Amino acid sequence: MNDMEENSAPASSGKATASMICGIVSLLGWCVLGPLIVPVAIVGLVLGCMSMKSNDKGFAVTGIITSSLSILLGIVVVIFGVALMGEMEEQGITFEEIMKEAEQQIEEAEGR
What we know:
By secondary structure, this protein is an all-alpha fold. The protein is 78% helix and 0% strand.
């Protein structure tokens, strides 16, 4: 076989592996960083889509699925946050009032 024949077959792709790693890290990162991890998920999704023609198609699919789940979780969190802020505004509650009440409860708990 010459070099041309060897290069014509789809090669193993590091992009697929990187996609899978980004997807898994983005899902696990939600526990620590929350929505700040969404850019990692976007990178994982892009790399997974780019590497679908490689021999590591399973890794690419895993990266696409996990990254998509992380992005979907980010969308849900944003929608929930916007709805919560709208409800707080409708009720006339400010963030400062919530923080003051929380501080008072902490002081009461420590005083006991």
